Amino acid sequence: MRVFVTGASGWIGSATVDELLAAGHEVTGLARSDASAAALQAKGVQVRRGDLDDLASIRAGAEAADAVIHLANKHDWSNPAASAAAERASVQTIGDALTGTGRPFLLASGVAGLVQGQPATEEHPSPFHGPDSPRGGSENLALGFVDHGVHTVSLRFAPTVHGTGDHGFISVIAAVAREKGVSGYPGDGTNRWAAVHVSDAARLVAQGLEKAPAGARRGRRRPHP
User: Fold this and answer.
1) Mode of pairing for the β-strands spanning 67-70 and 2-6
2) Which residues of the chain have pLDDT under 50?
3) Could you read off the pLDDT of 174-194 as tens digits, one per residue?
4) So what's the pLDDT on residue 116?
5) Cα separation of 164 and 171, whole Å?
């Protein structure tokens, strides 16, 4: 299968590309820099230059593929509105390109903030709708394309995805624990926080591509309040 991946050189994207290649898929990755392009080419991945603001490149990549996996995100914490707008525009572009084809469209989402006062799972629908909501309401936007002949699958990643080489806050917490000799926790320790190893997240993507039905929300079944 020819698979177009945005965020192909990112944290989850790199592991996902490895899974896809191992499964025998032909992968094209979106690369915004020379370094990202070189890293993808070294793996045998075809490169399409562009970023989330280059909607023409994203559309061309989607149209030429048998499936699209959208993992890219700007992560511009100084301007979340711009990040949400870019995310929504790219999802709209991919959905439009795949309309009526029945092709798979998998996109990154999550379980954080789905519900309050109870454990959240992938079974809970996202409350985020519209361009002003977190991530531009991209999950609901993408799932809406199911009614237009797109095989959409939402990838409900845990709030933290860790592993060797991780630079996120889980690695910081682990480093503090090693330094101090104890692991800290908030309150009485009864809170729960979903986390997943990056290799498991990548397998989730590969399995979702091959097995998940249209409209599915797929993630680990470990709750997050």
Assistant:
1) parallel
2) 220-225
3) 889 999 999 888 888 887 788
4) 83
5) 9
Whole-prediction pTM: 0.91
| Distance in angstroms (rounded) separating the CA atoms of residues 61 and 58 | 5
136: tokens are 């531009």
How far is the C-alpha of 58 from the C-alpha of 202, rounded, in Å?
Answer: 21
> Token pair for residue 93?
């572009």
Residues 55-69: pLDDT tens digits? Answer: 999 999 999 999 999
The letter for the amino acid at 67 is A
User: Quick one: which of 138, 133, 132 has its CA closest to 93?
Assistant: 138
What would the two tokens of residue 190 be?
């009864």
